[in-house]
Fold this protein.
Amino acid sequence: MPESLRAIAKAIDHSLLHPTLTDQELRKGCEFARENDLAAVSIKPYAVPLAREILKGAEVAVGAVVGFPHGNNHIEIKVREAELACAEGATELDAVLNIGKVLSRDWDYISAEITALNEIAAANGALLKIIFENDFLPEDSYKIKLCEICSAVAVAFVKTSTGYGFVKQSNGMYSYQGATDHDLALMRKTCAPGIRVKAAGGIRSLDEMLKVLKLGVSRVGLSATKAILEEARSRGYK
């Protein structure tokens, strides 16, 4: 568990992924990440050059998403997106799997996709985080199999959600759970010890963040970063 404000900050990937995010908001978010010495920013690939410029010399990683948010691009498109992001300065990649292929249990396809992306990450000295989008996976068996594949390929992280995996209900309304205690514990238990777990989706308070870290999570994707850091300071973290 983190015992200092810096330890909390260094567990945070600051999410700058909203579809309406402007260049001004992107710049402000990257500057905020630099000022607070966060672990990383999580941004769209087009934003990598600007983020790299703002974060030059800082110990804040530039993290680009791949196949975001639905993971439906052809493997070759994802590979090219990852290559370009790394070439422009990304040092972390958060990649969404082809969810339809997961639900089809086409494990050869999924293994090939993860392997191809991990090869790009490794060739560029980047960390790969594989996003499962657990809200769309109705049984633990899918998550367990994905953990096994990610462990075999030796990716850096497995990740619960994009933050945009809203599931339409029979009444026409949408539901969303994000990072649940059950899923995080399952992913930590099932993955090889060297694979880290990232929680994303629905974490909006310091207590919620501390709870998932206690479950063995190494990184937390947040859009409520400012509020959580302010809460930590008010509670005496220094």
